[in-house]
Design goal:
Residues 1-32, 167-219 are annotated as: Disordered. Residues 17-32, 210-219 have a biased composition (Basic and acidic residues). 52% of the residues lie in helices and 6% in strands. By secondary structure, the protein is mainly α. Helix 6 packs antiparallel against helix 7. 5% of the residues are buried.
C-alpha cells in the first residue's frame, strides 16, 4: 500500500514535468523536437518552471507552456496588456528592494562603511532599474518610441530617416541639399543680422549668388 502510494506520487511528478505538444504529422520526430526546443514559449516554460519552483512549487509543464504561448500570441498581435502590468508590478518590486537595501546600508553606516557602500550601490541599481521600468511602461502606453531606420549621407548634406518626424508649420524650412551653397542659407524669409548701428544696413546673409565686389574698407 505504501509502495503504491510512493509510486503514484512519482508518477504524478513525472506527469507535471512532461510537456505534451501535438507535433506536425508530416515531419519527423526529430524535427518536431527541434521545433519545440526553439519555441520561445517552450524555452520560457523551462526557465520559469525552475525559477518559480521555490515560490509556487512544481508547475505543470504543459499548462505553463500554453499560458506562455497565449501571452506571446497576444503580444505579437499588438496586445501588450500583460506586459504593461508586468512592468508596473516589477517597478513596485524594485522599489521594495531599494527600500530594504537602503535600510541595511543605514544600519551599517556607523561601523561597517564598506558594507554600507555595497548595500547603497545595490540600492541605487535597483532604483535605476525601477526608473527604467517606469520609462519603458510610459513608452509602451504612449507610443513615444523612435526607431532610426538608416542614415544616408550625400555630398550635399545628411539625411536621417526615422519613424518619428517633426513637422514644422510656418517660419523657415530646411532647404533642399542639391540647391544649397557650401554654407547653409535660409530657405524661408528671415531678417538680416543687425550691424553695430541698429539703424544702419544689416549684415548680409550668405547665399549662393557667387562672388560680389566688396567696397573699400574705411580708413
Amino acid at each position: 500500500m505504501t509502495a503504491k502510494s510512493k509510486k503514484s506520487k512519482a508518477g504524478s511528478a513525472r506527469s507535471k514535468a512532461r510537456l505534451d505538444i501535438e507535433g506536425e504529422p508530416e515531419k519527423s520526430k526529430e524535427r518536431n523536437l527541434a521545433n519545440v526546443s526553439l519555441d520561445p514559449a517552450a524555452s520560457g516554460m523551462a526557465a520559469t518552471r525552475m525559477f518559480n519552483a521555490g515560490s509556487f512549487g512544481e508547475q505543470d509543464s504543459t499548462e505553463l507552456y500554453l499560458s506562455l504561448s497565449d501571452k506571446g500570441k497576444a503580444a505579437t498581435s499588438g496586445d501588450l496588456t500583460h506586459y504593461k502590468a508586468m512592468l508596473a508590478a516589477q517597478a513596485d518590486t524594485l522599489n521594495s528592494i531599494f527600500t530594504e537595501l537602503a535600510r541595511r546600508a543605514a544600519l551599517n553606516m556607523g561601523e561597517y562603511i564598506s558594507a554600507t557602500e555595497i548595500y547603497m550601490r545595490l540600492a541605487l541599481k535597483a532604483q535605476a532599474q525601477c526608473k527604467a521600468n517606469i520609462e519603458a511602461l510610459d513608452r509602451l502606453s504612449n507610443g513615444r518610441v523612435q526607431t532610426v531606420r538608416h542614415v544616408h549621407v550625400n555630398e550635399g548634406g545628411q539625411a536621417v530617416i526615422a519613424d518619428e518626424f517633426h513637422h514644422h508649420t510656418g517660419g523657415c524650412k530646411n532647404g533642399k541639399s542639391d540647391k544649397q551653397p557650401h554654407t547653409t542659407g535660409t530657405a524661408g524669409k528671415s531678417p538680416a543680422l543687425l550691424s553695430q548701428d541698429a539703424q544702419g544696413d544689416g549684415v548680409p546673409i550668405s547665399s549662393g549668388k557667387g562672388k560680389q565686389e566688396v567696397p573699400d574698407a574705411r580708413r
